[in-house]
Amino acid sequence: MPSARSSMLDRAPTSKTSEPTDRETATRPVAFRGAGFMPKAGRYSGWIALALALGLWQLAGSTRLVNPLFLPPPTAIARAMWQLAISGALWQHLAYSIMRIGIGWILGTIAGVITGFAIGLSNLARGVGITFISALFPIPKIALLPLLILWLGIGEEPKIATIALGVFFSTAISVYSGVDNVPRNLIRMAQSFNVPFHAIVRRVIWPGALPSILAGFRITASVALLLVVSAEMIGAEYGIGAFVLQAGNLMQTDQLLAGVVILSLFGLAVGKLINLLETRLLHWR
After folding, report:
1. Would 251 be classed as within a structural domain?
2. Is this model's pTM higher than 0.90 or not?
3. Of 146, 187, 243, 278, whose CB neighbour count within 10 A is largest?
4. Does residue 21 lie within any of the structural domains?
5. Which SUPFAM superfamilies does the record cross-reference, listed alphabetically (predicted)?
């Protein structure tokens, strides 16, 4: 019997051997996995990819793998842009386009912000406004340009009105969507403290809707650029769109692509401006 008891004691696990393992498991560090799906772009990856694309494009043009008439190399496009700049034609066309975009975007944005807040804050305006916006928003605004020419005459007014219409609908939709996305608990809390209506709009609704409004500005800037090019192609003597159409009719593809590059650079500049605006106004996020 003593021998059997001693063998059973030898087989039984002891708590002293398991204690260090439990302690090591409890104190082992766990890798942090809460990055929140935050995308991080490389600092130089975009510029490197752009330089490689331009290098391959230039190589294909220099070795005649691609006909320069159909796709001029980047050096030919840069030369055409330089000639346009020193001749003064670039600044003339660019000035007309910027004037039309600026006036049309400002008018459409002001009307869209007022309408969007009215729809977001008033039941009557919501019932009327959403019906009209839903019915008119899908219409291509450039299709209204001939009608606007009949109404407003041949000049700058129809082009500016076309841009303003395109900007208005997108702005109104982004504004009232932003107002609807403001947490209602914050509004109810302000109302429970008898905060005046105008103070609620200024201190609660406006900051809450501002991210959506600025996102709408980014969209409407692209809409204005597309509409000004289309309007200038239909009925304008000066402007980037008119210049691109004229260069295409004359098969001057280097100048045509120079106009396209100018439009791209203008869009990048507007995007940078909106980024600065977001950084300044949304620093609390």
Report:
1. yes
2. no
3. 243
4. no
5. MetI-like
The pLDDT, as a whole number, for residue 38 is 62
Q: What is the pLDDT of residue 155?
A: 85
pLDDT score, position 205: 92
What is the per-residue pLDDT for 32?
Answer: 57
Q: Which two tokens stand for residue 279?
A: 């950084």
Segments of the chain scoring below 50 in pLDDT: 1-2, 4, 6, 8-9, 12, 14-17
Given this model, what pLDDT does residue 9 score?
44
Q: Would you call 18 exposed, middle or buried from its count of C-beta atoms within 10 A (0-12, 13-18, 19+)? A: exposed
For helices 89-121 and 123-136, what crossing angle results, to 10°? 140
Residue 156: give the domain boundaries.
84-281
pLDDT at 47: 83
Number of domains in the chain: 1
